[in-house]
Design goal:
alpha/beta
Length: 132
């Protein structure tokens, strides 16, 4: 699998979801377990940004998650994007304490989307002065 090759080549340790959980396991079941282990989640499930239950499970359990902005990329495309994003992901991992969720764009950029205070977008919106 190309993604695993990228992780192997970068020396990033990983665990596969299917090694620990059956297919179809509820996110609200496996997310707290993974977060409690201190593992970082890498997923192509871009729907995470719309699921309050999943976001809350990561935030409440002090987790870290990186998700690809598109779940429609093939394995080769995801591997290419991941190889570009890994240095930025590593910096974010060291710089920002959990919990957080971050997106990975097609160009390999990594954007913080949620932290312990909630949505970064909402935080920025609320901090802007209101125009009259």
């Amino acid at each position: 699998m190309p993604l695993l090759t990228v992780l192997d080549n970068a020396g990033v340790p990983y665990e596969l979801h299917k090694t620990h959980f059956p297919q179809g396991e509820l996110d609200t079941t496996w997310l707290p377990h993974v977060c409690s282990k201190g593992w970082t989640i890498l997923t192509k499930d871009k729907g995470i940004r719309y699921s309050r239950l999943e976001i809350d499970a990561i935030i409440q359990n002090n987790g870290r998650e990186f998700y690809f902005r598109s779940g429609n990329w093939d394995k080769a495309k995801m591997a290419d994007v991941l190889s570009k994003a890994l240095p930025k992901m590593k910096r974010m991992f060291k710089k920002i304490a959990p919990p957080f969720l971050a997106s990975i764009t097609e160009s390999g950029e990594v954007h913080l989307r949620y932290d312990k205070k909630g949505s970064i977008h909402e935080q920025k919106r609320k901090s802007k002065p209101q125009s009259e």
